[in-house]
Amino acid sequence: MASLSLKQKLRLIKSDTGGDSMNIMPEKGEVVPKSNISSEKKMAGVKRIKNTFLREKQLWLICIPIILWVLLFAYYPMYGLIMAFIDYEPGRAILDSDWVGFKHFIEFFQSPDFWMVLRNTLVISGLGIVFGFPAPILLALLLHELKYTRFKKFVQTVSYLPHFMSWVVVASIVFVTLGNEGVFNQFLMSIGIIDRPVSFLGEGKYFWGVITGADIWKGIGWSSIIYLSAIAGVDSQLYEAGKMDGLGRFGLIWHVIIPGIRPTIVILMILGISGILNAGFEQQLLIGNVQTREYWEVFDTYSYRYGIQLGNYSYATAVGLFKSIIGLILLVGANKFCKKFFDTSVY
Amino acid sequence: MAQINSVKSFLILQCTKKAGESVKQGFIKESVGSKIFDKVNLVLMIGFASIMLFPFLNIIALSLNDGVDAARGGIYLWPREFSLDSYKVLFQNEDLLKGFGISILRVVVGTVTGVLCTGLLAYIVSVKHFSGRKFMRLLFVFTMFFSGGLIPTYLLFMKLGLSNTFTVYWLPALFSPFFMLLMASYIQNLPDSIFESARMDGCSELRIYFQILIPMSIPVFAAIAVFSAVGHWNSWFDVLIYNPSGEWDTLQVYLRRLLLEVEAIQQVQDLQLAYSKYRNISPITLRAATTVLVTLPIIFVYPFAQKYFVGGITLGSVKE
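The joint structure predicted for all components is written out below.
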């Protein structure tokens, strides 16, 4: 039965439930009592649902544990977000706790930490958008123009590598490279820019630069894949036409490739803007230290510190919820903007 | 059979790529400017590749250097005073070896369970006549856009008694909506009639999944397995917060502890007390050697894995 086409199946179901009365749209001129139709429809509906369930018993049986899993591990924590509006104490049921409304949110907005956290988040994300966003596009363009296929493959392979390293490894590499005895300091001293080693990791003013550099180093190769495949999708006739019209290499890039990959750029830009409050988490915890905290504490790390390290669960949940709601608003906003001005959108 | 197919499709992919490139080059004579552009581009790319590669080579050189000597700095691509002491110390360190074992266990268990379960889910949401298909899809896709966040999840795991257990590594990672979408987009392109005829013959859904679907979808399963294995190998934050007792510490957490200055010095002192002949290890070289050790497994599977994950990221992006 399952092998029949949908149409055949519907016909079968129809014949099961009594044939012609299934015709929901009465033909012209035909007079059908209203009540009769709806009750029969209901009967047919119930029977149909029952039949479907019986036929798909196996599939639904497999679904049950999956549904239980997703309810427990994905939806129950969403219910836990109510904690942001109550004074949660461990060991007490969420519904028994005192409802305090927006108290935790207001507390967060009024604390001096709020401005520091907001500033760090916006600056780190902003640097990521200004420098980190164009970097893979530039890399993809240059790679595409590279003539030596073997070398091109080598560069690509090498550039993906850091993406597969954990932040712990990257942080270790950053420490080795930028530490006081690190290669970078040695290099700067040998060409005479500085006399003494600069503590890149110990002083807060360098932190934003360090973290942006580390983010780009880790992600540039991987992000370039998507642009490379977009470039590969540009119609080769357009290249020929461009060449015929006398476009040089830069001309081809500017007038053929960039317009060709614009939808990809716009979509990734939307995602980038909507993720502006996700300024990173692991890298801050690993590369940052106590001296530089003023410059690296972002929403996520702040929520982690207050929630898990200090046990202030309700406050930390409020911080996290605030962040994700702003993120959702930004996504919708950026999407609308791009739909209007670039004719491209994520959804 | 399926493996042959996947290798074949990979080869075809490469051939078409090369063909495309050779077509693009050429038929109008190149100008001088274009040639200069190529040379400048080559130099830029060599520079870029060195920036990507240098830190790795540097850390390998450091790990092979004498500890006290390394503290003076100035080691670039080659060790100045060659010494294997850091590695010797590491391989005698039981904590580290145990961490290594747990990391591998986590990768194996987490990847196998995760890929099989997410694959099953992907199969279910691609059975064309299944009435709950849309519902299951929505149920998972919604969690991609909205989640409870760190704190409620943490409290849930505590409540479930998952802290300080090995279960916390694989159970919450059984199903992934993102992997589900990737796998489903592949499975949907498989001919439906094969599954239908199996069903006609009375084959159960689970058997269809294990004996027909998986062998037919080896490329996508391999790609997801690579992603998942790398993710499990690299994750450290969940170990940190869900395993405070340190009983199930993985290699990443061990390395992270060395990154904290005070802990690293403490560790070095402990090791020196335990093994007096390795007096010349220092936090820098110990850290470098551990980093190399954590990185090596990935470097080893990298060439093998690369063909799968590059396919993986663009998987399902183009429908023809």
